């Protein structure tokens, strides 16, 4: 047997006994999200795959048909309980076999939404009540009525069941680390240079607070839907039933039945502004975590952290000693890929020529990729966070070699007691120079300030000069 590769004239030869179907698939797909990283991205397939898109289209079509049957419109009776249950079972038991059948129909129609409609008509054969009203399947709908609501439901499921839990897992791990290391003093670095000390826990708490806010922004984006026909005016609806409140009916359907927010003003397509807003929010969260990846990479390089070792793993093919920060590097790379696509989608989707063009349709099919790269990054980051072991000796060594960072509190206390040229005196003593504890103590001892102020300054060390850092780290939640 053979599997197609490169082009139609190139194939990989194999026998079924040699390679499992799963392995074969992972080795030959184009995207690593479905190959190398298939296990990590698996939860998204239920929500964002092609089969998931079909399932959600079927959901909207079935719910629309049921809603029409309850509307009291002439020509379509209120369905009996068995008929309604039959329709709902098409949604609840939708399978990959059903998706494959829709795909077969699409090969003939060359229209994906029409293929769903024909599959539904095919599926209700043998149900007299439903067959009698089969022309009300997809009634007055344009394809985008089905697609826009299906995408909104897909985004809702992926956000609530996959992405948000993954982000919250990272957030919770950061909170734990902030609490555990709240009291571990650490030299800060501004512009890469030694600066006023902080604590390791406080620096982690900073990120936890940022990502908490970002998660809230992602959660707060309302997911919109429209069911108003070919150009957004209910033209077809009113041609068939001119005295019916179609706008009220559509609003109730979108909000009550689908759990989305109704958009009254659209062209043929829902304008996707909310998707851009959601993707902007997700990109912002990703940027915060990318910043964390780079900082942790740097702290590992400084020796502030060690990484838990798996004896079976290899860090370098030639340097046996290596323990590389690969989880943070993988996370950073995948966050970059995710954000590049998120920002393109956020810029592209709200733009459509006149009442619509198909450029949005083709890029919307890639939303699984942006969520996939994001999820993969969160998984790598969390794995890296769980491997971190603090090296307090190295952190304290850095602190104890930078007594010059106490120039800030010394000159500030001098200012309090109106010592002239306080800042300038400390600048001359310390700027661009290392300074020993003894030399700093001698300077403090010679100051004309109250004795209690001298005692306070003389008792201070780089490790103790952390302000409210411990308290701030301990209260993050």
From TrEMBL:
Provide the reaction this enzyme catalyses.
(2S)-2-[5-amino-1-(5-phospho-beta-D-ribosyl)imidazole-4-carboxamido]succinate = 5-amino-1-(5-phospho-beta-D-ribosyl)imidazole-4-carboxamide + fumarate; N(6)-(1,2-dicarboxyethyl)-AMP = fumarate + AMP
**The Fumarate lyase N-terminal domain, residue ranges:** 79-333
- Which Gene3D superfamilies is this protein grouped with? Fumarase/aspartase (C-terminal domain) (1.10.40.30), Fumarase/aspartase (Central domain) (1.20.200.10), Fumarase/aspartase (N-terminal domain) (1.10.275.10)
A Gene Ontology term for the protein's cellular component: cytosol
Gene Ontology annotations of biological process type: IMP biosynthetic process
Under CDD domains, the record lists: PurB (cd01598)
* The protein, known as: Adenylosuccinate lyase
Q: Which organism is it from?
A: Candidatus Vallotiella hemipterorum
Starting at the broadest rank, the lineage of the source organism is: Bacteria, Pseudomonadati, Pseudomonadota, Betaproteobacteria, Burkholderiales
């Amino acid at each position: 047997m053979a599997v197609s590769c490169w082009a139609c004239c190139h194939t990989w030869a194999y026998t079924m006994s040699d390679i499992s179907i799963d392995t074969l698939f992972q080795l030959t797909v184009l995207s690593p999200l479905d190959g190398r990283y298939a296990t990590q991205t698996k939860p998204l397939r239920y929500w964002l795959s092609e089969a998931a898109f079909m399932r959600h289209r079927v959901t909207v079509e079935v719910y629309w048909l049921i809603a029409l049957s309850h509307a009291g419109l002439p020509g379509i009776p209120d369905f009996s309980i068995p008929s309604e249950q039959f329709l709902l079972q098409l949604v609840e038991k939708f399978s990959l076999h059903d998706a494959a059948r829709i795909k077969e129909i699409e090969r003939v129609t060359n229209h994906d939404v029409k293929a769903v409609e024909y599959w539904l008509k095919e599926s209700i054969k043998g149900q007299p009540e439903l067959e009698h009203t089969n022309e009300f399947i997809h009634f007055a709908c344009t394809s985008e009525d089905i697609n826009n609501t299906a995408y909104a439901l897909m985004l809702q499921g992926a956000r609530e069941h996959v992405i948000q839990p993954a982000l919250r897992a990272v957030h919770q791990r950061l909170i734990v680390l902030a609490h555990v290391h709240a009291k571990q003093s650490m030299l800060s670095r501004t512009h890469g240079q030694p600066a006023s000390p902080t604590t390791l826990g406080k620096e982690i708490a900073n990120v936890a607070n940022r990502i908490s806010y970002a998660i809230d922004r992602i959660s707060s984006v309302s997911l919109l839907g429209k069911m108003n026909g070919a150009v957004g005016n209910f033209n077809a609806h009113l041609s068939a039933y001119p005295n019916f409140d179609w706008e009220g009916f559509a609003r109730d359907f979108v909000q009550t039945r689908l759990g989305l927010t109704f958009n009254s003003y659209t062209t043929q397509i829902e304008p996707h502004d909310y998707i851009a807003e959601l993707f902007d929010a997700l990109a912002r969260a990703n940027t915060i975590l990318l910043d964390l990846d780079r900082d942790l990479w740097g702290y590992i390089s400084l020796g502030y952290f060690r990484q838990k070792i798996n004896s079976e793993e290899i860090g370098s093919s030639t340097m046996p000693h290596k323990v590389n920060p690969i989880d943070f590097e993988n996370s950073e790379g995948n966050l970059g890929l995710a954000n590049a696509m998120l920002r393109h989608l956020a810029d592209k989707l709200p733009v459509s020529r006149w009442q619509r063009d198909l450029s949005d349709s083709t890029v919307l099919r890639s939303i699984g990729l942006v969520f996939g790269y994001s999820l993969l990054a969160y998984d790598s980051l969390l794995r890296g966070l769980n491997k971190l072991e603090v090296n307090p000796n190295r952190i304290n060594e850095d602190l104890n070699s930078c007594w010059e960072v106490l120039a800030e509190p010394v000159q500030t206390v001098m200012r309090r007691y109106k010592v002239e040229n306080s800042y300038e005196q400390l600048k001359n003593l310390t700027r661009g120079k290392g300074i020993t504890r003894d030399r700093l103590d001698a300077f403090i001892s010679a100051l004309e300030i109250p004795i209690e102020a001298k005692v306070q300054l003389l008792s201070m060390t780089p490790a103790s000069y952390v302000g409210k850092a411990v308290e701030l780290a301990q209260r993050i939640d």
